[in-house]
Structure formats: structure tokens, C-alpha cells
Amino acid sequence: MTLPSKVKIVEVGPRDGLQNEKETIPAEVKIELVDRLTDAGFINIEAASFVSPKWVPQMATSAEVMDKIRRKPGVIYSALTPNMKGLEAAIAAKADEVVIFGAASEAFSQKNINCSIAESIERFRDVAQAAKQHHIRLRGSISCSFGCPYQGEVPADSVADVVRRLRELGCDEIDIADTIGVGTPKKVQAVMERVAREFPIERLSGHFHDTYGQASANIYASMEVGIAIFHSSVAGLGGCPYAKGATGNVSTEDVLYLMNGLGIDTGIELDKVVDAGQFISQHLGRKAVSRAGNAIAAKRLG
Ligand SMILES: CC(C)(COP(=O)([O-])OP(=O)([O-])OC[C@H]1O[C@@H](n2cnc3c(N)ncnc32)[C@H](O)[C@@H]1OP(=O)([O-])[O-])[C@@H](O)C(=O)NCCC(=O)NCCSC(=O)C[C@@](C)(O)CC(=O)[O-]
């Protein structure tokens, strides 16, 4: 199978990457991180999450971040919105895109957003209608598409069912997420081929956490079956608070190094992403979780 000549990389570090950090990160650090990523050339950055601050305290600065980042024309700044309260906050914050986020497993849906899959779709219905009325782009995200920390196996048909429901709500793009990083290439290809029967493949994305070190292989395998949109997290930051032990998304630096090596265009400057990864890692007081990021940074030191 041929690989795509160009892929879209959605940078989720400022949200998925930081949401799990225990120490409160000042808004100005989050703002500088987003601005650095804007300068690196991303056309889509997930910068905020309008959820309960009791559930995810780190995202309580989302309104300030969205207000003070330097917006570049043509760049989509996204925010998670699980319900109408979140959507109203996202409209006030002038989000370019809102993300409704469900799960392919009942157990994770309950743990993450405190409702069943069916209830979440009903909650999302109002959010989707309001987003469309306000001409805001709508993305859907499906957690645990390759396995659930609570129920284990997740059938591809379960993922396809949620894709169908999100399609009916009018999603412009749908993320197939490996929340706990358990996916491996053959399984990933099977799930991607199954869900591509429910939704245009060019608007499906792969969101891979790297807990078992499989994310880059899974990205390659996804490209082989036609996926050309991927999420990643600068410095390999992150993990979902409701998936114990889940590490961060695959690092953006590793993904860009892979794409550059394959001659696949991303429009993003790897060196600037390495700078951003080193910036946030220094603030957090720990090394980046990125092989390519750390190797490039070390090489600079000579
Ligand atoms: C979804 C809820 C709010 C439902 O929580 P709930 O308890 O069912 O909602 P509620 O309506 O009963 O409200 C409870 C409290 O939350 C407040 N509230 C209610 N909604 C909002 C809101 N939008 N923004 C701010 N506050 C809100 C509401 O005002 C109330 O405040 P109180 O009266 O107790 O002071 C809750 O379960 C929640 O916030 N969960 C957090 C989910 C989350 O952020 N998870 C991590 C992101 S998802 C993820 O990382 C996975 C992903 C996307 O990356 C893909 C992958 O890898 O899998």
C-alpha cells in the first residue's frame, strides 16, 4: 500500500499533554508553549478543555490560555467540550473547533465523563447543534478504541457504532484513540478499516498513546490503510487522568522525525518543536519523553 505524501499532525500537548500534570502550571507557561507550537507551523493545536475543574484542575486556566495565545490566521485552536456548559465557555473563548469526547467502552465512559455511551451521545447532540449554529468546527474523539483499562478487549464493531453516532451528529473529523497505548499494528489496521466503512477515511485520525512503545509502528500501519491525520504531544507529555498508568501520546518530535525520514510533508519545523519540548520539559523539571527530541537536543550541545 502507498503511504500518503502529506499528513496533518494535530498537536494535543497543551491539552492532553498537560491535563494530567499534578503541579499547577501557570497560564503564561501554557500560553508560551502554544505560541511556540504556532510558530513551528501546526495548523491545528488542541489548546484547552472546558471541563469540570474539580475533575481536571489543570485545565481551569483554559479561558485565559485561549484569550492570551497569539492566534495565527488559518490555525485552528481546539477545545474539549463535554456538554453545553463547556460549549458556552468555548464560544466565549472563541475556539475554532470543539471536541466532543466519548468512548467505545461503557466502563471508560462512566469513569471519564460520568455517563453511559448513549447518555454521552445525547449530551453531545445539543453541543453539536450549537457548534454548527455558531459555525464552529466539530470533532469527535473515541477513547479506548483499541482496549479499555477497565473492561479489557473492545470489539471493532463497538468503535464503529460510536463512529456512526458521531457521524450522525455532524462531526467534521473523528479521532480513533488508543487511550492506554495497547494497540499493535495488525489490530490497528483492522479497527481503522472497520471504522472507515462508517466515515470518510480522510477525516479519520489516529490518536496513539505510547505506553507500550507501539505508537510509531501503529502510525505507520494506519498510514498503510489510508489514515493521514495523527495526534501527538510535544515532548511526549500526557496521559488521561481516568486511565491509570496511561503515558503520554506519542511525542510529536518522534512522529515528525518518522515523517521527515519517509519524505512525507507535515508543514512543521521539527527543530522548533524540539525547542518547545525542551522549554516545557525544563519547566516541568524532567527530561522530555521523546527519543528524537532528546537526541536532537543532545546533538546541539555537541
Ligand atoms: C463531563 C463532566 C463535567 C460531567 O460531570 P457530571 O458530574 O456528570 O456533570 P454535572 O453536570 O453534574 O456537574 C458537576 C459539576 O461540574 C460542573 N461542570 C459540569 N460541566 C462543566 C464544564 N464543562 N466545565 C466546567 N464545569 C462543569 C458543574 O457546574 C458542577 O459543578 P458543582 O455544582 O459541583 O460546583 C465531568 O465528568 C468532567 O469534567 N470530566 C472530565 C473529563 C476529562 O476531561 N477527561 C480527560 C479528557 S478526555 C481524554 O483525555 C481522552 C482523549 C480525548 O484524549 C482521547 C484518548 O486518549 O482517549
From TrEMBL:
Gene3D superfamilies (alphabetical): Aldolase class I
InterPro entries assigned to the protein according to its UniProt record, in alphabetical order: Aldolase_TIM (IPR013785), HMG_CoA_lyase_AS (IPR000138), HMGL (IPR043594), PYR_CT (IPR000891)
Catalytic activity line of the entry: (3S)-3-hydroxy-3-methylglutaryl-CoA = acetoacetate + acetyl-CoA
Span of domain Pyruvate carboxyltransferase: 7-274
Associated pathway: Metabolic intermediate metabolism; (S)-3-hydroxy-3-methylglutaryl-CoA degradation; acetoacetate from (S)-3-hydroxy-3-methylglutaryl-CoA: step 1/1
EC number: 4.1.3.4
Protein family: Belongs to the HMG-CoA lyase family.
Full protein name: hydroxymethylglutaryl-CoA lyase
Recorded GO MF terms: hydroxymethylglutaryl-CoA lyase activity; metal ion binding
Record keywords, A-Z: Lyase, Metal-binding
Signal sequence interval, chain numbering: none
